[in-house]
Amino acid sequence: MIETIDNTKEFKTWSGDMQTRIEDVLNAHLPDTKISPMRLHEAMRYSTLGGGKRVRALLAYATGEFCGAEQEKIDTPAAAVEMIHAYSLVHDDLPCMDDDDLRRGKPTTHKQYGDAMALLVGDALQSLAFQIISQDKLIKNATQKLQMLHILALASGSRGMAGGQAIDIESIGIPLTRAELEHMHIQKTGALIRASALLGAYSTDHLEQDKIEAIDHFAKSIGLAFQVVDDILDSEADTQTLGKTAGKDQLNNKSTYVTILGLSAAKQLASELHANAMAALSFYGQEADLLRYLANFITHRSS
Question: 95: domain range?
Answer without folding.
Answer: 8-300
